[in-house]
Design a protein that fits this description.
The protein is α+β, with helices and mostly antiparallel strands. It contains four helices and two strands, in the order ααααββ. Strands 1-2 form a two-stranded antiparallel sheet.
Length: about 140
């Protein structure tokens, strides 16, 4: 049986508000300017008209409940920041542990549900399917543009 794809706006990347379209380095500079010594990872810094990483964490809370009902292979396609938050949620981590997950562009991560209902990460940030692909510009590492 083929499962229909579902679009979920909740899977979108962090909304950067007035900072949308700024180079990553500029966004980091603006975050540092607003930094609080008690928030070294900028988890509560919200761009004007945007959302903070903590807002994104809360927005993705639903996936833990929904994933417990998945009884067949399910693909979740999203951006890296949201992907790290999703992995941390499914692996019972926290918002700080989400920073541990970094993904090359077009990478695949795979989880399997154990009999006790918990998830095991069996493949992480794999790009083997891209072997032999010629890149015309930029890079596949997620950092080179």
């Amino acid at each position: 049986m083929r499962r229909e794809g579902l679009r979920r706006s909740l899977l979108r990347e962090t909304h950067l508000g007035e900072w949308e379209g700024f180079p990553f380095e500029e966004i980091q500079r603006l975050r540092r300017l607003r930094a609080d010594p008690n928030d070294p990872f900028f988890l509560d810094i919200r761009p004007p008209q945007g959302e903070s990483p903590r807002d994104l964490w809360k927005r993705l809370e639903w996936i833990e409940r929904e994933a417990s009902d998945w009884n067949e292979p399910t693909a979740v396609v999203t951006h890296g920041g949201a992907g790290g938050m999703i992995l941390a949620r499914l692996l019972r981590g926290n918002i700080e542990s989400a920073r541990s997950f970094r993904f090359p562009n077009a990478s695949v991560s795979e989880l399997e549900r154990r009999p006790d209902g918990l998830w095991t990460l069996v493949r992480y940030a794999c790009i083997e399917h891209l072997n032999g692909l010629q890149v015309k510009a930029g890079g596949l590492d997620g950092a080179t543009r």
